[in-house]
Amino acid sequence: MKYVPKRYQEYATGRILDTQYLGLLLDMGLGKTISTLTAIDLLLNDYFEADRVLVIAPLRVADATWEDEIRKWDHTRHLRISKVLGSVADRRRALKADADLWIINVDNVDWLVGEYGSKWPFDTVIIDESSKFKSHQSKRFKAMRRVRPFIKRIVELTGTPAPNNLMDLWAQIYLLDQGERLGKTITAFRERFFTPVIKGSYTEWKQKKEAEQRIYEAISDIVVSMKAEDWLELPERIDRTVPVRLSAEARELYKKLERDLLIEYADADVVAQTAAVLSNKLLQMASGAVYDEDRGVKEIHDAKLDALEDIIEAAQGKPVMVFYNFKHSLDRIQQRFPQARVLRKGKDGNEDIRAWNNDEIPLLCLHPKSAGHGLNLQESSCQTVVWFDQIWSLEEDQQANARVHRQGQTRRIVVMRLVAEGTMDEDAVAALERKAAGQEELMQAVKARIEKVHKELITS
């Protein structure tokens, strides 16, 4: 297929060529992969400023998405790739292959750095979904920090740079500029932009006055932000909360666990020993079942299954996408709806994607952690996305919804959240809304830097 870039894609490609380290905060659906591949091809074969390119991505994206994009476009088909996946022996063979791009999943970054150490061979590194490196305590971040001095060019791609708060930015920006803008250490970053607030046994960091503006100004020269609504005429997305009323019996069990932290059963009890466990247990109960102390499943109600059945009927035969967070939710969905399918791994998963996009799967169940990044599922006639379980992660929520509501989609999309009334579901949805507001502020602030360029492109 002939590649005819949009103006924002030309801009993104140009910034990669002109900047040795760059963060591209491209909203979902803006084609960050092909924009980056176009720049990499030029750096390898026209400018001769790159020699060995490493792509780091979530597993499914590393296994399929980059290869699919390369093969899709006429101008990138000549690029040779080697997927550094599978067993240790398979990975070592892949590293020895003659290629232009080596692609590895994020979970093997620590291993890769251990293989090479100071003999790091990749002069150019692309980190697809850089928010995977947001934790300064993670092994993957520490590994990349060790070899960052040996990397000539680095590009970070993400649509959700600060999924929880601005503290998530430090590690990602450090991998770009090695601490030049936000500090050499997380401690220096905190002391500069945050104030510690002691809350019992832990410390909460509160942003100082004008911290956001100062952070945005500090990183604006190495970060480009683009929002999909500024560039794409996407079909309308409608978000709806579907209230689910629990039976009196189910509500009483829910209140009992919330109050007593214990539900007694004859065979195994349901116990919540910490606040985090309690939150998780309550979300499970809100969805209709809960794990006991022996990992058995105690069914509480079918209210969400009944609501999902109504939604499927209302879809009038069109495919429906359902996101679940708990294994017992998936099991119960599959039991009620035998036509439900899950996205398998590897080549089988690629066949599932093809079948979904050809309307051969009527009900697709996805977990946001495994299906949130890089999958192109927008070619089916699906117009209904259902969140059966509610989650706390803004990043997973946004990425998951963008599997359908993205460039190439031609139909209006309705995102429905099944929210059990008076339960933790309501708190989780409210938390996502608060986090989304903070994320929007970040994207808008950094985006301001290219406002002039945007206007020039529109008028040219």
Describe this structure in words.
The chain has a seven-stranded parallel beta sheet with strand order 3-4-2-5-6-1-9, sandwiched between helices. Strand 3 (81-84), helix 4 and strand 4 form a beta-alpha-beta unit. The protein has two domains: 7-231 and 442-459, Rossmann fold, CATH 3.40.50.10810; 237-434, Rossmann fold (3-Layer(aba) Sandwich). It has 19 helices and 19 strands. Helix 1 crosses helix 2 (32-45), helix 5 (109-116) packs parallel to helix 6 and helix 11 (248-260) runs antiparallel to helix 12 (275-287). It has helices at residues 7-18, 32-45, 59-72, 88-96, 109-116, 139-147, 169-177, 186-193, 211-219, 228-231, 248-260, 275-287, 303-314, 327-336, 346-357, 368-371, 394-401, 424-447, 451-459; strands at 21-26, 53-57, 81-84, 101-105, 124-128, 153-157, 194-199, 202-207, 223-226, 237-244, 262-263, 270-271, 289-291, 297-299, 320-323, 340-342, 363-366, 384-387, 413-420. It is of the alpha/beta class and 460 residues long.
